[in-house]
Every structure is written in structure tokens, then in C-alpha cells.
Automatic annotation (TrEMBL):
<feature type="binding site">
    <location>
        <position position="194"/>
    </location>
    <ligand>
        <name>uracil</name>
    </ligand>
</feature>
<keyword id="KW-0021">Allosteric enzyme</keyword>
<dbReference type="GO" id="GO:0004845">
    <property type="term" value="F:uracil phosphoribosyltransferase activity"/>
</dbReference>
<dbReference type="InterPro" id="IPR005765">
    <property type="entry name" value="UPRT"/>
</dbReference>
<dbReference type="Pfam" id="PF14681">
    <property type="entry name" value="UPRTase"/>
</dbReference>
<keyword id="KW-0342">GTP-binding</keyword>
<feature type="binding site">
    <location>
        <begin position="131"/>
        <end position="139"/>
    </location>
    <ligand>
        <name>5-phospho-alpha-D-ribose 1-diphosphate</name>
    </ligand>
</feature>
<dbReference type="GO" id="GO:0044206">
    <property type="term" value="P:UMP salvage"/>
</dbReference>
<dbReference type="InterPro" id="IPR000836">
    <property type="entry name" value="PRTase_dom"/>
</dbReference>
<dbReference type="GO" id="GO:0005525">
    <property type="term" value="F:GTP binding"/>
</dbReference>
<comment type="similarity">
    <text>Belongs to the UPRTase family.</text>
</comment>
<keyword id="KW-0460">Magnesium</keyword>
<feature type="binding site">
    <location>
        <position position="200"/>
    </location>
    <ligand>
        <name>5-phospho-alpha-D-ribose 1-diphosphate</name>
    </ligand>
</feature>
<comment type="function">
    <text>Catalyzes the conversion of uracil and 5-phospho-alpha-D-ribose 1-diphosphate (PRPP) to UMP and diphosphate.</text>
</comment>
<keyword id="KW-0808">Transferase</keyword>
<comment type="pathway">
    <text>Pyrimidine metabolism; UMP biosynthesis via salvage pathway; UMP from uracil: step 1/1.</text>
</comment>
<keyword id="KW-0328">Glycosyltransferase</keyword>
Length: 209
């Protein structure tokens, strides 16, 4: 079963409070989401494998370490996932970025993929699927399926806020995927919003609504 990591670093929790606050406007909301995404990226990359290399310093040859293998791939789920990409790239500027787009079929209410473009050799990369809100878990599970269908084998999920039911859904569908969140909230309401949550992440990021 995949683990759920609640990233409780004080800076993440402090900034999340202002992200949740309904009086936070678009510009500040956007900035805060990027900042939290950057801090979360620091934690989520803690276990990346290192290899030793020889480095010529101005003084001597040193045995030092670099991250092994191909650069990782970020895969934001359109559209709200886009709001976390630049923050992560601040820390991991060489990361490749793929995209997955999903819509909900009005009859079956199931997520349907309408777009998927991933970096080459995705099977050799650590892949981080990014979506701020893990609500029912339907979209996140479908996005993870989409990247796995194209060969990804090492997948993590990064969200800002999760509902318990969304966590369960992803764990059930993808027991090999660890989930990283800043908070697990109480529940979903009848409209599918996370309670207390932060509202509609896409609308707040892009100033729509
Ligand atoms: N998507 C959002 O943007 N917010 C929620 O609370 C649930 C899903």
C-alpha cells in the first residue's frame, strides 16, 4: 500500500493557512501555491538516488554526489496542476514537464482523458503527478493510469489538500504510488468540494469563476 506523507514543515503549514483564507486574492494565492509547491518538492525528492562523481575543485579532486539517472518528470493535471509547476521548477529547473488533461463525462461522471503529452523515456524517470486538490480521487487515479499506460513505473502524487476518500481511492487504484500532501481535510461536501479546503483551486489560481 502506498504511503501518505503529510508534509508538516512549519513554512508549508503557515503558507497553507493563507492559501485557504477566502480573502487571499489571485496574485497572492498564486504566489503562495508556487511557494508551497517548491517546499513540497524539497521533501518529495528526499529519496532520489545519488551517485558519486569526481570533481576538480580549485584545490583538489573531491568525491562528490549528483542525482543518478534521467531528470524527473512533472506531470500537472490540467488545469489546476499548472499552478504548482513553476514552484517545483524553481528547485528542479531541469525537470521535464508533461501534461494530462481530463474531463468528467456528464453521464458516467467518470474522468475521461482528452490530452496526454509526456517527456520521452518516461519509463526511466521518476514521475511526479501534480494536482492541488485530491477530492474524490477520480482524476488523480486516472492521471496516474495515463502516465503508467505510457510506461512510467516510478510515480508519486503531490497535492496540496486531500479528502480522506480521495486518498483511499488512489491507494486502492495505485497501491505502488506514495501520496504527498500538505493537509488531509475532513471530508467532501455534496458539491464535491473539500471541507474546509480552499475552494476551487483552478478558479482561485486563474481568477476565473
Ligand atoms: N477541486 C477543487 O478545486 N476544490 C475542491 O475542494 C475539490 C476539487
Amino acid at each position: 500500500m502506498g504511503q501518505v506523507y503529510v508534509l508538516d514543515h512549519p513554512l508549508i503549514q503557515h503558507k497553507l493557512t493563507f492559501i485557504r483564507d477566502k480573502s487571499t486574492g489571485t496574485k497572492e494565492f498564486r504566489n503562495l501555491v508556487q511557494e508551497v509547491a517548491m517546499l513540497m518538492a524539497y521533501e518529495i525528492t528526499r529519496d532520489l538516488p545519488l551517485i558519486e562523481v569526481q570533481t576538480e575543485t580549485p584545490v583538489a579532486t573531491a568525491t562528490t554526489k549528483v542525482i543518478e539517472g534521467k531528470t524527473l518528470a512533472l506531470v500537472p493535471v490540467l488545469r489546476a496542476g499548472l499552478g504548482m509547476v513553476d514552484g517545483i521548477l524553481t528547485l528542479i529547473p531541469n525537470a521535464k514537464v508533461g501534461h494530462v488533461g481530463l474531463y468528467r463525462d456528464p453521464e458516467t461522471l467518470q474522468p475521461v482523458e482528452y490530452y496526454c503529452k509526456l517527456p520521452p523515456h518516461v519509463e526511466e524517470r521518476d514521475v511526479i503527478v501534480v494536482d492541488p486538490m485530491l477530492a474524490t480521487g477520480g482524476s488523480a487515479a486516472a492521471a496516474i493510469t495515463a502516465v503508467k499506460e505510457r510506461g512510467a513505473t516510478a510515480v508519486k502524487l503531490m497535492c496540496l489538500v486531500a479528502a480522506p476518500i480521495g486518498v483511499e481511492k488512489v491507494q486502492e487504484a495505485h497501491p505502488d504510488v506514495d501520496i504527498y500532501v500538505a493537509a488531509v481535510d475532513e471530508k467532501l461536501n455534496d458539491h464535491g468540494y473539500i471541507v474546509p479546503g480552499l475552494g476551487d483551486a483552478g478558479d482561485r489560481l486563474f481568477g476565473t469563476r
